[in-house]
Design brief:
By secondary structure, the chain is α+β, with helices and mostly antiparallel strands. Helix content is 28%, strand content 20%. A four-stranded antiparallel beta sheet has the order 3-4-10-5, with helices on both faces. A two-stranded antiparallel ribbon has the order 1-2. The longest helix has 27 residues. The structure holds iron/sulfur cluster (2 copies).
Length: 235
């Protein structure tokens, strides 16, 4: 942290040291100006008016859970890692507060308010996969997931909104999807993917399958698993 002319200058390197020191495998920064295409109501400044930068981070998911024949390990990994990334975000906010930076954590998944019941469509307060792209963590695949060059799509993303102007990372320019690949689209048993979006109404019965006892299971992960780049970009 530097104090210059009475203004607080906090550098991006220091923030990344804190985030990675608390357990993140990836961390990138996007100035809030990069979110100009965010839908109305879902812009970082709609959540926190003083936001000047978005710090996006991710933790790796244990890879082999994707290939278990039971859906329970994959569901369990997702549930635990969602909480883990949430916990990390809150710890980063607390740490930054002690260093004079104001920060607001964004949930890695739930909760959110926007819900259109007629088409079972929910929208998070901030799209973390788009935030990850804008912060240089990866590129968006046709399966709609963020794809990092080293870890593929097996990452859980989190973010915090901070009131400091920070240097942004370069947006990734590597190719995620070869133009002729459509394995994820063709593998989806629900026909829910069109290469740009996922039809939540079609996907939910499998990705949020409710058992008789009331557990919510991720019965399907084919769009993630079938991707040849799921564990890192190889194609
Ligand atoms: S999770 Fe399954 S049902 Fe949902 S989009 Fe992916 S492949 Fe299709
Ligand atoms: S399966 Fe192919 S098209 Fe789908 S996300 Fe992976 S590389 Fe892209």
């Amino acid at each position: 942290m530097l104090i210059w002319g009475g203004h607080l200058l906090f550098n991006s390197k220091r923030i990344k040291e804190i985030v990675k020191g608390l357990g993140a495998d990836l961390c990138g920064i996007s100035p809030v100006e990069r979110f100009s295409k965010a839908p109305k109501g879902f812009h970082p400044n709609d959540i926190y008016k003083d936001c000047k930068s978005v710090v996006v981070f991710a933790e790796r998911l244990p890879r082999e859970s994707l290939f278990a024949s039971s859906c329970i390990p994959y569901t369990y990994v997702n549930n635990i890692m969602t909480h883990e990334v949430d916990r990390l975000g809150i710890e980063v906010c607390l740490r930054l507060e002690t260093e004079g930076i104001k920060a607001v954590p964004i949930p890695s998944d739930d909760p959110y308010e926007h819900w259109e019941s007629d088409r079972s469509y929910g929208r998070a307060i901030l799209s973390l996969r788009h935030a990850g792209y804008l912060a240089g963590l990866g590129v968006l695949g046709k399966n709609t997931l963020l794809m990092n060059k080293d870890y593929g799509n097996m990452i859980q993303i989190g973010a915090i909104l901070v009131n400091a102007n920070l240097e942004g990372d370069l947006i990734a320019t590597y190719e995620g999807c070869p133009s002729d690949c459509r394995l994820c689209i063709d593998s989806c048993p629900q026909g829910a993917l069109d290469g740009k979006t996922v039809n939540q109404q079609l996907c939910r019965p499998l990705s949020n399958y409710r058992t008789e006892k009331g557990y919510i299971l991720k019965k399907c992960n084919l769009c993630r698993r079938m991707c040849p780049n799921c564990l890192g970009i190889k194609l």
